[in-house]
Amino acid sequence: MSATAPAAPKTNRIGLAKADYEGSKSTLCLGCGHDVITKQIVTAFFELGVEPRRVAKFSGIGCSSKTPAYFLNRAWGFNAAHGRMPSIATGALLANPELVGIGVSGDGDTASIGIGQFVHLVRRNIPLVYVVENNGVYGLTKGQFSATADVGSTLKGGGANELVPIDLCGLAIELGCGFVARSFSGDMKQLQAILQAAIAHRGTALLDVVSPCVTFNDHEGSTKSYKYSKDHEEPLHEIGFVPYFDDTLAEIPPGETKDVPFPDGSLVRFRSVGRDYDPTDKDQVLATLHRSRTEKEFLTGILYLEPEKAAFAKVLKTVEEPLTALGAERLRPSRETLAAILEEYR
Asked: pTM to 2 decimals?
């Protein structure tokens, strides 16, 4: 009796298997929403055919910042100090613009100790997919409220939050971010489309993903629990992403659609789900976000999109080659050049 040979693993457009995009085994709590996000990140990079060696992963401190260990173990990586991921990413991605940057942070790492660094990364438009795994609590220090906890949300051990939350999406839009999205770790299809579009975007792409903490913030009374998120999620649209190398249409049923092209030829297609919403109209986006807070809606989707916005390297007019590849003769100014520069300041 002959044995059947096992089927070869499916490969992507550059000949790699999905396993080539995975990382170490997760040590997070069983059922943690962060692990769902990790799986979608793996799938997004695999399906787009991004070479792992071209990816640079960044993180700070917290449960969320352990996530990069669980995907793309062939990529570059830097685990920064608490709240300092944006400055590390800024330096690395300016030094080597050929890298595809992805940073994973948390609501504490970004909205508290790292808020100053986050603000400047966004206003500079550093080309980074910035994923905030947002659960409203500090998971590593036993579940205290974070700066994104909603007014009235309660702790597992009792006590309600009375402080106004920081809305990272609203803040990013005000600062000029060209790609702002909010999703839910339980909505994998939507999250997958958003991640693929974010990877194709060549500027800061903020993804605020509500990712329930199953240990400290998944109880009745929490506004970032699985049940609350499922009951209150209001998708703004259905999203389809068509990469530049794919000629097929986005898998969206016929209906009212809006197409937004990216500079590389990729396409994001939005289909209305009963709400008149234009993700390219900044004033309408901000007004919708303000109303949603009053009405306690949990809006998800790509909230704002401006794919033509120039990245920071273009503003600085830096060379396109990695600085590490430039020889000393190009990095060191000549005596004449240095003298001319000094003369300008006399």
From this structure: 0.92
